[in-house]
């Protein structure tokens, strides 16, 4: 696998910006036009807000790497995993020429990020079980296909994808395979993090937004071999991860036990919600979930959505997505939230 051959020429030839804090973080710092006098902001943790953050993301790479049992050199952090998705498209896909494969119904950001970058999206739909269609993916690929985006557990279908098909595709196809594991903590599966370390064209993205409960901090990352990590560092904005986010996330990683507790409670509530929805005769189908949400099919999705909204309960209407007619998606909430949701749902059904 020659990764260089998949990279856009302008990225290969790019002379990256060299930022001041790359070379020096100590001394009399008169190199970055910062305010040497101090900061107007309240700096409760003495983070020196007047100085730019660490462009190498050393703290987060070390902490998260230790937590995962993966070298920090195989990690790259973005402003949410959404930033990582965008950067991968910009590294590998020549606008107006190259294309990307997605398997719908799936997470909408892959297509949005491609549209923004003027990169064509080819849909190789999931099969009737909402799992990968090996043949559809193979026939979707052409000589300009650079990335295959997979989401496992998949949003909005909530299932883990077949790992052996993923392995087979990754070995056979001359392209980058991105596995979006935003919901992996809820699945009981270890995912592909370790496999990414010895698979040159595999990138696993993860996020602190879901199980870790830090969506407001905007922090996601990917795991890949150093060649791809190097490309991401080459193209990212020099100071993409700010000091508050970095410190807060690093401290949270020390408290992973709290995340595990949340995951346990969310899974308990997921099973409760699933059973309740399953027992409702008015609901046409409920998809089993490896994630922290449940998608269910009703006759009149818009009516149900609107009634819940009117009652202050906001879910997601996914009925317009490809091959997902009639489906609504509800996030697993607290016991009180879930009971109220079920009560109002029963009223409208
Ligand atoms: C929520 C979600 C993300 C979001 O990631 P951020 O780290 O918050 O940008 C990524 N992928 C999928 C499939 C998601 O559902």
Q: How would you explain this protein's 3D organization?
A:
- The structure is a single chain.
- The protein is of the alpha/beta class.
- The chain has two domains: 3-37 and 257-348, Aspartate Aminotransferase, domain 1 (Alpha-Beta Complex), CATH 3.90.1150; 58-254, Type I PLP-dependent aspartate aminotransferase-like (Major domain) (Aspartate Aminotransferase, domain 2), CATH 3.40.640.10.
- Helix content is 37%, strand content 14%.
- The strands form two sheets. A seven-stranded mixed sheet has the order 1-7-6-5-4-2-3, sandwiched between helices. It has a four-stranded antiparallel sheet with strand order 8-9-11-10.
- Helix 3 (58-68) runs parallel beside helix 10 (243-254) and helix 4 (81-92) crosses helix 5.
- It starts with 8 loop residues before the first helix and ends with a helix.
- The site of pyridoxal-5'-phosphate has 13 residues, from helix 4.
- Pyridoxal-5'-phosphate (PLP) is lined by residues 80-82, 107, 151, 155, 180, 182, 207, 209-210, 215, 220.
- Pfam families: Aminotran_1_2.
- Its cofactor is pyridoxal 5'-phosphate.
- Homodimer.
> How is the CATH topology of the largest domain named?
Aspartate Aminotransferase, domain 2
Helical amount among residues, as a percent range?
A: 25-40%
Bound molecules: pyridoxal-5'-phosphate
Number of domains: 2
Question: What's the gyration radius in Å?
Answer: 22 Å
Percent in strands? 5-15%
CATH class of the largest domain: Alpha Beta
**Structural class based on helices, strands and sheet pairing:** alpha/beta
Return the CATH architecture of the largest domain.
3-Layer(aba) Sandwich
- Count of extended strands: 11
The sequence of SSEs as H and E is: HHHEHEHEHEHEHEEHHHEEHEEH
Low-confidence stretches: none
Estimate the global geometry from the Cα principal axes.
globular
Assembly type of the shown chains? single chain
Mean pLDDT: 98
| Euclidean distance between termini CA atoms | 53 Å
**CATH homologous superfamily identity of the largest domain:** Type I PLP-dependent aspartate aminotransferase-like (Major domain)
Strand arrangement within the widest β-sheet reads 1-7-6-5-4-2-3
